[in-house]
Amino acid sequence: MKKYIIAALAVFLTAGSSQAQQKWSLEQCIDYALKNNLSLKSSDISAKSQEIRRQQARNQRLPDLSASGSQYFSFGQSMNNQGIYENKNSQSSSAGLSTSMNIFNGFQTKNNIAVQDYTLKATLEDLNKAKESLAMNIASAYLQVLYNKELYQVALEQVELSQTQLTRYENLAAHGKIPQGQIFEAKAQLAKDKLSATESQSTLQLSLLDLSQLLDLKEWSSFDIVAPEIDMKALSLMISSADEVYDYAVGNKSTVKASEYRLKSSEKSLEVSKGAYYPKLSLGASYSNNYYPDMKNTDGSKMSLADQMNINARTAVGFSLSIPIFNRFDTKNNIKLSRFEVENAKLEVENVKKTLYKEIQQAWFNAKTASEKYTSSSEAIQNSEEAYRFAEEKFNNGKSTIYEFNEAKMNLASARSNLLQAKYNYLFSVKILDFYKGQPLNL
Which domains does the chain have, with CATH numbers? Predict the structure, then answer.
């Protein structure tokens, strides 16, 4: 009979919705979000951009190569190909290739490559940190939905109890055993419980909406999640000490790695700045050629293109040395600025580690406190259930009033609500510690 009543109430409170719902596990929610979240896609683009900047830094070790060409038309007096000025119109064509390669520049190229390498590693760790944060937010929203689902079931059970009591009162009133006024009292209590159930359902739907928005789902009306079986007894075995969790997290969490890579990047940037004190040596080479349409041989015949290519070719190879002497103290000041950046990066690493330790201490304390509250709530609900059973028996035997019975019923509902709250606070606290220990978020 209870099953039929609960089913009827669920239909009433969901306004006749009968559409089949797609149920997602926590793992499916996280996987979907990691593939479709817009912020993560933006972070991924940033990582790919940094990969290009790193490749650009590496390419600075390669020589460059450029080609040039020109066509000149001269009118009036101009110098011919023999170096003699003539008063006539002329034209010439030229083409050339040039290349240069850095040989030594104070190790700036090498250190700049290292800067971009460490920056890329930091960017990738930032991406991992964003993924971890998103996964944790989804886990929190997922557990909130589970909590609201169970609260909704408690509310439906309260409606069921009130409906059963109303039916019993109507039967007693029909036989003249109780006054008609008690029926109205029972109906009023049933209306209150239905209102509470409606509010619980609204809260549940809102939490489902919040979770679907984290997933960036376009359609959420048929969205629902799996309610897994959770072994609460096994959770107590999973709580490690705060120092043990920290020892793992400080060497593996993305937030720490990202700050350490940025420190290394700033240290290499300092070396790049120092490199400006060194001389710079480069190698250059060029090849060029000219063609004159009116160029002639000694016998007066027009010289061919092939002959001109041999005669007019010019090749040059040379070294270029640049020695810095004075640049308005730019190098000195850049080194000072780079050192400040290194000091800031060191402070950031220490701050990240201290913040991480505080977070883990707080998470561990919350887990221990939640464990104790869950144990206390479990004991309290046993006493509340026994008190309710005793109050129901007294009420059915006419030894107590409906107010006393309703008070016992509300106390039982409150105890169940407190137990659910303690349960999910405990579960979430343990999952946070699992997160810091690098374990996957699952239920």
Answer: 25-64+110-278+324-436 (1.20.1600.10), 279-323 (no CATH)
